[in-house]
Amino acid sequence: MTVTSQAAAEEPEELIRFRQQWIEEVRGKKKATASQDDHSAHAAHESSSASPDSAPVPARSPHANAVAQRRLSHGAPSSPPKTRRLSTSVTPAPFGPALQRAVDIYRKAVQHEQRSELDEALRLYRTAFRMDNNVDRAYHLLDERISTKAGAPSSGSAAPIKAHHRKTSSVADASPVDTVTHGMQNLDIAVGRVPVAHARGEGFVTGTLAGLISSWPVNLAFESEDEKTGTPIQLLPDELLIHVLRLLDTTTLERFAAVNRKARVITLDASIWRPIVQAVLKPPQISEEFETLILKYMTDYRRAYIEHPRVRYDGVYIAVCHYIRNGIGENVWVNHTHLITYYRYLRFLPDGQVLSLLTNEDFGPQQVIPLLKPTLRMKGFFIGTWYLDGTDVHIEELLDPAATEIRFSFQMILHLRSRPLGRWNRLDFREYDSVRITNGEATPLTLKNERPFWFSKVRSYA
Fold first, then answer.
1. What is the CB-side half-sphere exposure of residue 290 using CA atoms within 13 A?
2. SS3 for 148?
3. Which of 4, 36, 178, 180 has most Cβ atoms within 10 angstroms of its Cβ?
4. Is the preceding peptide bond at 420 cis, omega within 30 degrees of 0?
């Protein structure tokens, strides 16, 4: 008797029965798998013959059949999920590039907020709203349209097509807008029209503020923190309150608007903001008709005042510049250096004049600002003309009013910026030229030590 037969004889009958049952179960699974593969192949062949538009089913290799059998043994589907072809009767309109970038940033902010990273989310929210005030509406309408497109079945083609799947990361895609812009058409970012005026019709509000106010109740009131004490301002009619608000400047007006919802709505009255905007946005601030400009902001006067570039008249732009100069001393072993500070001042006047002054550190802002008027006569003082083209401030014909013989004038091109939104408080040098008056030849001047101008408000200028 061999060793194998002896080992088999020594095995218990229970182990032999278990092995035979296991072999029968494996054979049964193989037979069920083979019959199911034949059935799916037959169904695929019938669907391909019934629909001429569908793609032919490629033949499977033995390795692919083995993979499919393993998936079936674990309960996985034998073929990829099938999708329906979306209707192409309507050609969607994509986002503009600026709004698309803003939605990208807004989506990143939402993801950071979901992960409780509130500081980063707040920074991204601010960036997105600076790029486009309607980014929140675009984001929500985008998600709504995506869900609608994904859930709507196609009525144009009943034959299913084979879906091509790509490997996707487990982390949420931070920029999915590029893949869904073709599914967005008739995206309507509506303008919120909020009734706020009682003396001069109705005011119009656009952007983020419109969506916020539209959720507020219609009947608003001034309420006191203590119910026992009254609220005297509640006794004033809205017409009288609006008349009082017209006498305030924009800073005080916005502070009052932060009191409560009623104050916010009242301060949006068009009769308050229209005179303010008309007094500021006029030549040389703008080169087009005022009504044409306001239509670009959908007659939202407050938004036009905040967002449209404008040079400010209620103060002076100051640039503090420094440079280092080598000095001379008696001791040759000691290096002497001097930090030189000088100031540049620009004051813009509504009549198109601009006052430019260059001083050293002996004449600081406290001494110069009260004297910076067209009647000033001192070294480094020039008077010229200016106009605004977009965000570029053009200053021309800067001349010394005290000079008897003038051979040169100066001209500048400055870039107007706003930090934060609505301040328009920074001017960056772009060009600085010296112009010969006889032939008009312009010679660029070096801007090595120049620094940007920052706005400083002056009460006496307002």
1. 14
2. helix
3. 180
4. yes
For 45-94, what is each residue's pLDDT tens digit? 454 444 444 444 444 444 444 444 444 344 444 444 443 333 333 333 45
- Cα–Cα separations (whole angstroms), residue 39 to 42, 55, 113, 296, 309: 5, 19, 50, 64, 71
H or E stretch covering 146: helix 135-151
User: What pLDDT, on a 0 to 100 scale, did the predictor assign at position 22?
Assistant: 78
Q: Give the single-character DSSP code of 83.
A: B
CA distance 415 to 272: 30
Residue 124 structure tokens: 């991204």
For residue 284, say if its preceding peptide bond is cis, omega within 30 degrees of 0. yes
What is the token pair recorded at 389? 């083209």
Q: How many residues would you count in the chain?
A: 462
Cα distance between residue 324 and residue 164, in whole Å: 66
Q: One-letter amino acid identity for 265? A: V
Overall pTM surpassing 0.70 (yes/no): no
Question: Number of C-alpha atoms within 13 angstroms, CB side, residue 80?
Answer: 10
**In 3D, which of 125, 123, 132 has the Cα closest to residue 101?**
132
Query: Cβ distance 100 to 173 under 8 Å?
Result: no
Rounded distance between C-alpha atoms, residue 44 and residue 303, angstroms: 61
pLDDT in tens, 282-330: 999 999 999 999 988 888 899 999 999 999 999 999 999 999 998 887 8
Phi, psi for 27 (deg, rounded to 5): -65, -40
8 A C-beta contact, residue 392 and residue 351:
no
CB-based contact 413:394 (threshold 8 Å): yes
CA distance 185 to 91: 7
149, 197, 262, 387 from 193: Cα distances, Å: 29, 12, 16, 34
Q: Distance of CA 433 to CAs 98, 161, 208, 218, 436, Å?
A: 34, 67, 43, 58, 10
Residue 26 CA to residue 430 CA, distance in Å, equals 81
Cα–Cα distance measured from residue 335 to residue 326, given in angstroms and rounded to the nearest whole number: 8
Give dist(CA 331, CA 366) in Å, integer. 38
Question: What is the distance between the alpha carbons of residues 131 and 1, in angstroms, rounded to a whole number?
Answer: 91
Scan for tokens 């869904």, then name that residue.
Answer: 180
Q: Are 420 and 127 in contact (CB under 8 A)?
A: no
In degrees and rounded to multiples of 5, residue 186 shows phi and psi of 60, 40
